[in-house]
Amino acid sequence: MNFETSVSARQGARRAPWVLSAALLLAVPGAWAQAGDAKAMLKAMSDYVGRQKTIELSFDSDIEVITPSLEKIQFTNSGEALLQRPNKLRAHRVGGYADVALSFDGKTVSILGKHLNAYTQFDAPGSVDQLFEALRAGHGVALPFADLLLTNSYEALVAGVMEAKHVGRGVIDGRECEHLAFRNFDTDWQLWVEAGASPIPRKMVITSKTLNSAPQYTLRVKTWKTDVKPAPDAFVFVPPAKAQRLSPDALIGLDELPAEASTGARK
């Protein structure tokens, strides 16, 4: 055995336990808890969130697109939201290409594009749950994180799930979390739920399996409060001076991606 072969062998021997452990974990389904455990943890998260009358949170999000030259580009945003059940919501998201605020007072939705000094309004009487559905169905707004805030998020999240796993424990911003993984027909998605008496959703990753290079949407919850007393005017919308009113069909102009980004890879 020459010197180069000997060094290579020693390096391989040092790596072998780690490689073997990873291979066994990926190869043996028994290394993960059963699907029932993952779904039970998801249900506990859903029940906890659904019981909260008010939720105030802040978040960071990333969305990936694939360019025509097959380059993967990631765009980042930050935001915050204040929800008061059953029918009040205020949210704000800012990134490099959009600065958007939403207000819902139980009757009217107001969406302001601060970067455009333009806004749109439309009637949407009902609950916050119904608002999320209306934004998706009628206006093409994806809102992937909104499912986690529904009164009964479990029902919406497990629809279409073909496989569920409890991967184990992870740590998000110093908080120990249960790591859950789910498979749908066209997406894989992961959820990290804070362990303990307050199963708060701390991180979500959605991977598109039917799109080239499998782009992902990622969201991290930075802060979460439930002992909030909103001010009386917290959900009142007053348009800025000289702001232009747009048609609700113009919501596409309030996107979080630049206009030239590939639409085929959006989440």
Provide an overview of this structure.
With 267 residues, the protein is α+β, with helices and mostly antiparallel strands. The chain has a single domain (31-259), classed as Clam (outer membrane lipoprotein receptor (LolB), chain A). The protein has helices spanning 3-27, 35-51, 128-139, 153-158; strands at 54-66, 72-84, 88-95, 99-104, 108-113, 118-123, 163-172, 175-183, 187-194, 201-208, 216-225, 244-245. It has a twelve-stranded mixed sheet with strand order 7-8-9-10-11-1-2-3-4-5-6-12, with helices on one face. The longest helix is centred in the first third of the chain and has 25 residues, at 3-27. The chain is globular and about 50 Å long. The N and C termini lie far apart (54 Å). Residues 1-31 and 262-267 have low confidence and may be disordered.
